[in-house]
């Protein structure tokens, strides 16, 4: 197993753990023979689930712990002694110890973020990590960040988000040269916050290897106008949840309309292949797996309610990130940025948060 | 005509003016006999369009001007001498002069906002106007503000937005006691900006006549969790445009799926009544008409691309606002708020913007 790249899995995180976790793991493993797994959690519960999949036990190393972090636990509690040695903590710790190339958990987002920041720390030269997610668009998928690792972002941080988002889109969305833009509002006389305008100036002025396209508006995200959309964590989180809410409302209303009459049901039955392809295009499972970017190690957050298909996709994101040149690309871009930062003495450098 | 309430109409604003404007006006007029209209623009073009509708000419007073404001004109240009006496300017001016109870324009948003602020000024005691819009929800409609009158909002302004949004929902959505919440993000350890948290504290502490429900997340807007959602103009604008983009993408993908095969087309034809009712639930025309709240007079902004049905709805919003106790309600709530502001010396009071 030593020749295999290992992925560290929180076996106990998520609404439907551990069953869904192991089913997703088995599905991923069967199509990715080059990977092995470190599985954290209650071995008595996990082992029989793993053994139900032929060939899987030989690729799984169990790390028993009976501690778990509840979905509603406060992040601060997760960092206390009782959170240490939990399945989530240990999953991240295996990345810190360089045993695994990436960790995946469907557990408590706030706790996972807090543990990841503490264990892995922010990459030297970056001010802050960011949470990036994949967003279904008309033409495929876009990366959007920050989705809520923090609530504000200054110009320098937005520039760093752009760099990280592009590296993510290359690694996970397999786009050779992702385009990137800053999320802004469209009204003529209001061209956004100072931070957004200054970030645009920096991205244009800096000698970065980026296809920077300026500003986009909210409607451009789904339109697929660019591959990477950059914003602060408050706006990004609101935009993501608003979009999820609208998509859910629209598809629910469609279902209600089609099932509320015999004619509707008949038409839907006949059009079922078309309706299925429509549903598949919007399937949130195929974009499951958000990543905490900017830490010294890869941590992927699966949706807590993901099923096996969704969890498998989150592991794929982890594998793609783990196999990518993500860290090297970030370092190279940051080195280019540093030389460009000098003319802008107002760019905040906070030693507290830079570590 | 003196006994009729008058609505002031910019006959030349919008992508399809003046044809769509007059068709929308005629549709509104036929079902609202109590209203008359002041119509601003090129009388030679407008008069024959009005005369094509039986009974309408007697209810329309023409105010000729050959000046118009282009859709792509900068707001600052609209305020210069060349913008004065434009159809948009004159439409707002008739409200300032108390000739009309409200003005409606489908023209340039930034110009309309700039003209309205200059001509009508902010209500005494309010810090800032806000742009409010109607948002389709699962159960009906919600009011969301600010949609971009400004890009930031402090705690006091968010409280004022809550007061205005509730008065709007009562006047236009005909809800007797609208519930209101602040838009926030859901992550456990990040409970939003200081402004949002302080606004929540103020709304709980103040002796206001409000059904305040605390925080909602982006997904709760479409869910119809509350009747009024309050946020700053940057976040509100991004959320609105993101939602519009998602709704358009989803319905476009559905159309593509249903028209890409014979079976899909056949099924859709059979299910057409259901698909129509689905489409009607999401029809953006039935929520057309955003209002600049907090000015000494009612100005309604119709979507620039609205058709006659949409423009008619924007006039209905103007009529509802014009007939409502909106101003009296705002004044009463502000009076209650003033006495509550005293314990919070950090609440900003800016004499410059308060006028």
Characterise the protein shown here.
Two copies of one chain form a homodimer. In chain A, 47% of the residues lie in helices and 16% in strands. With 355 residues, chain A is of the alpha/beta class. In chain A, a hairpin with a 4-residue loop joins strand 10 (290-293) and strand 11 (298-301). Chain A starts with a strand and ends with a helix. The model of chain A is unreliable at 342-355 (pLDDT under 50). The interface between A and B is large, with 73 and 73 residues.
Keyphrases for this structure?
homodimer, 355 residues, 14 helices, globular, disordered C terminus
What would you report as the Rg of chain A, rounded to the nearest angstrom? 21 Å
Q: Hey, which two chains have the biggest interface?
A: A-B, 73 and 73 residues
- Helical amount of chain A: 40-55%
Query: How far apart are the termini of chain A?
Result: 34 Å
Query: If helices are DSSP runs of H or I spanning 4 or more residues, what is the number of helices of chain A?
Result: 14
Uncertain regions of chain A: pLDDT < 50 for 5+ in a row?
342-355
Please list the strands of the largest sheet of chain A in the order they lie side by side: 3-2-1-4-11-10-5-6-9-7-8
State the total count of DSSP E strands of chain A: 11
Q: What is the arithmetic mean of pLDDT of chain A? A: 90
**Helix/strand structural class of chain A:** alpha/beta
User: Into which percentage range does the β-strand content of chain A fall?
Assistant: 15-25%
Q: Which outline of chain A best applies?
A: globular
Largest sheet of chain A: 11 strands, mixed
**Quaternary structure type:** homodimer
Spell out the helices and strands of chain A N to C: EHEHEHHEHEEHEHEHEHHHEEHHH
């Amino acid at each position: 197993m030593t020749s295999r790249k290992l992925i560290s899995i929180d076996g106990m995180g998520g609404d439907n753990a551990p069953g869904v976790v192991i089913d997703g793991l088995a599905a991923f493993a069967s199509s990715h023979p080059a990977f092995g797994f470190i599985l954290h959690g209650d071995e008595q519960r996990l082992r029989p689930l793993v053994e139900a999949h032929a060939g899987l036990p030989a690729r799984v190393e169990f790390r028993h712990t009976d501690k778990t972090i509840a979905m509603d636990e406060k992040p601060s509690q997760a960092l206390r002694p009782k959170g240490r040695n939990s399945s989530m903590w240990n999953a991240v710790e295996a990345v810190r110890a360089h045993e695994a190339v990436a960790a995946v958990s469907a557990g408590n987002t706030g706790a996972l973020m807090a543990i990841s920041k503490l264990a892995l720390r922010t990459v030297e030269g970056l001010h802050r990590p960011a949470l990036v997610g994949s967003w279904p668009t008309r033409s495929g998928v876009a990366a959007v960040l920050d989705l809520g690792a923090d609530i504000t972002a200054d110009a320098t941080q937005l520039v760093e988000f752009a760099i990280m988002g592009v590296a993510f889109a290359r690694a996970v969305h397999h786009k050779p040269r992702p385009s990137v833009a800053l999320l802004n509002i469209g009204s003529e006389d209001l061209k956004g916050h100072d931070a957004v305008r200054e970030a645009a100036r920096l991205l244009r002025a800096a000698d970065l290897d980026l296809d920077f396209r300026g500003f986009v508006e909210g409607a451009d995200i789904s339109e697929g106008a660019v591959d990477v959309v950059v914003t602060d964590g408050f706006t990004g989180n609101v935009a993501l949840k608003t979009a999820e809410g609208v998509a859910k409302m629209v598809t629910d209303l469609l279902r209600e309309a089609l099932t509320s009459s015999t004619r509707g049901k008949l038409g839907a039955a006949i059009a079922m292949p078309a309706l299925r392809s429509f549903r598949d295009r919007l399937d949130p499972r195929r974009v499951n797996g958000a990543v905490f970017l900017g830490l010294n190690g890869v941590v992927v957050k699966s949706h807590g309610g993901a099923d096996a298909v969704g969890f498998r996709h989150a592991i794929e994101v982890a594998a793609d990130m783990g196999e990518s040149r993500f860290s090297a690309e970030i370092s190279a871009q940051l080195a280019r940025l540093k030389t460009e930062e000098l003319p802008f003495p107002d760019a905040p450098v906070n030693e507290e948060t830079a570590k």
